[in-house]
Amino acid sequence: WSWFLLAALVSSMMVGLRVDFSMLLEPLGFVKVLEWILAIFAFATCGGFQGETTLLVSCKGVVNKTITAAFAYPFRLNTVVFSAPDPKGCGGTWADVYLMGNFSSSAQFFVTLAALVFLYCLTALVVYIGYNHVYQQNNKFPLADLVISVLAAFLWLVSTFVWAKALADIKVSTGASIIPGIESCKAPGTTCHFLSVTSMGILNVSVVFGLLNMILWAGNVWLVYKDTNLHSQWNRISESP
Fold this sequence. Notes:
It is built from eight helices and five strands. It has one domain (21-239). By secondary structure, the chain is of the alpha+beta class. A three-stranded antiparallel beta sheet has the order 2-1-5, with no helix packed on it. Residues 23-229 form the MARVEL domain.
């Protein structure tokens, strides 16, 4: 029965299908394609990041030992640990050292929004290309598109600035400033030096993509608004004596 219902649903959808790729050349369709592409880049540049921060440690029985702490999306740094430089833990003076901060909520907000926008853009493109006649005849679709566009522009604004702030904190929590906060490095005879941290240029790019998405969706609001009866009603009011 489930297969029968699915087949009936698909067949009913196919009845009204009128494929017209010319919509992709019009501003509304072209912008939607750009939004789809930028959502992919925003998702990939943030969600696919992996890095590590490295220290050089000397302690009892250990000279210039490199230790690393690997971190990645969703950036729960408080679960990332520098293990002991040697099996004896520097003669018992070294305790596991964790990075500071949990930035998963900001990162996941940004990535989840990108994923949802990606799915919505795919759905909207299917409607634009295959059911544009329905979209134009029923004003409920343009109105719903308008509301979603306004909401998406606002959420891109919020998520991008929240993620940008979290990224700045991640750089601090994985940079040279972590040395003074490591108690094991203060033990007698122990020295710690910061070596390196993975470049976060790709994460900077993710913030740029977030801003581009925000701008693009804000512009899309006007394009969708012109397809609603709100625009035509406003024109009639403005033209009336």
